[in-house]
User: Which sequence fits this backbone?
């Protein structure tokens, strides 16, 4: 009997231990909240990296559109947040490792675009370990193991530079369940010798090499003009409010222009992004804000509203915002439908070599691979 009791107690202890392990390592998330995709993009802005920054500017909306197509197992769409760092720039303080947080993790995609277009190259000393370490400590990373959390660091100097060990930084990333993906701007073998591959391997990330000076190849389609026209109509559905609302609406137009500076096809990529759930502006747009809290429509100060709304009462405001919301939903739906045809056309007409050795291709490959581990599909 004594032996049987001892065996029983050992079995209970073993079961308890297994339960604790499962609790510690299984993805956890409030059932009411969708999963999150969090990306920190760390760009080398030293003198030789103009081509890299150019690729990032011209490919931002294509990357966003890929993220926006992700689905959770329950059919919901994951929330998307992006952060941006620059490093290796002599204009930045040496005391801080020649790096800075350009933007924290945010769903304000216009802000990311604005900051990206403001980057300038100069210098410098490129401390990969330090910028990874800093991004891990500064950014508000999720604690949930269900979320997809990734760092993409791109540069061309050895990964070993600086006083902060890249191995220690990548070790911290692994503790936080953040995957570090490394993108060497140069030959594949040179990146291996410079420890870029080792940095990625430490967290199970992807190591890739790209040609940073290659120009993004766009494929014009028969659907571009209609989507571009719909984008103009979409902009008319935004109803600004708040102290900075009008400036944010102007910033939206500026980022449309920035995207268009790379051609009609890139402007269309941005329009597609604006028709997706990933493009949210609840901090300044009443249509988006009302989805979270309808009371904001009535609470908004008259002097911080568009001219046509200043003299409206509460019910009139609600009716006006609903009208704009209905218009937006219809426009977004048409853009999404046209984009399906557009993507089919692009797939048939894209030169095979155009998809290789570019920043977007490297990032999207890694995102798709790691998303499967988090039960996200595309």
Assistant:
């Amino acid at each position: 009997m004594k032996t049987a009791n001892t065996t029983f107690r050992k079995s209970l202890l073993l079961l308890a231990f297994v339960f604790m392990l499962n609790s510690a390592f299984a993805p956890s998330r409030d059932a009411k909240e969708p999963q999150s995709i969090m990306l920190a993009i760390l760009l080398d802005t030293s003198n030789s990296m103009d081509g890299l920054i150019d690729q990032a500017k011209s490919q931002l909306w294509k990357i966003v559109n890929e993220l926006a197509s992700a689905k959770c197992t329950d059919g919901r769409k994951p929330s998307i947040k992006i952060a941006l760092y620059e490093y290796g720039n002599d204009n930045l303080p040496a005391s801080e490792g020649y790096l800075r947080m350009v933007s924290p993790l945010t769903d304000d995609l216009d802000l990311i675009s604005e900051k990206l277009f403001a980057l300038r190259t100069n210098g410098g000393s490129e401390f990969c370990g330090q910028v990874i370490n800093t991004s891990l400590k500064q950014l508000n990373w999720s604690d949930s193991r269900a979320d997809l959390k990734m760092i993409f660091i791109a540069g061309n100097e050895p990964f070993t530079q600086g006083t902060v060990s890249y191995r220690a930084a990548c070790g911290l990333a692994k503790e936080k369940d953040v995957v570090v993906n490394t993108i060497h701007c140069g030959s594949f073998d040179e990146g291996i010798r410079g420890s870029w591959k080792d940095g990625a391997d430490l967290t199970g990330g992807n190591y890739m090499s790209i040609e940073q000076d290659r120009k993004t190849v766009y494929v014009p389609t028969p659907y571009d003009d209609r989507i571009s026209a719909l984008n103009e109509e979409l902009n008319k559905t935004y109803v600004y409010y708040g102290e900075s609302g009008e400036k944010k609406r102007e910033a939206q137009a500026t980022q449309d222009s920035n995207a268009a500076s790379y051609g009609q096809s890139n402007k269309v990529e941005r329009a597609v992004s604006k028709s997706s759930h990933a493009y949210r502006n609840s901090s300044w747009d009443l249509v988006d804000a009302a989805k979270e809290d309808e009371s904001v429509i009535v609470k908004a100060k008259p002097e911080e509203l568009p001219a046509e709304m200043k003299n409206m009462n509460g019910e009139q405001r609600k009716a006006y915002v609903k009208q704009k919301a209905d218009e937006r939903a219809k426009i977004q739906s048409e853009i999404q439908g046209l984009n399906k045809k557009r993507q089919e056309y692009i797939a048939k007409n894209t030169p095979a070599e155009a998809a290789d050795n570019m920043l977007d291709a490297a990032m999207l490959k890694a995102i798709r691979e790691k998303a499967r581990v988090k039960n996200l599909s595309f």
About this structure: Residues 15-29 have pLDDT under 50 and may be disordered. Residues 314-349 form the longest helix (36 residues). Strands lie at 36-44, 79-87, 99-106, 148-155, 179-185, 207-210.
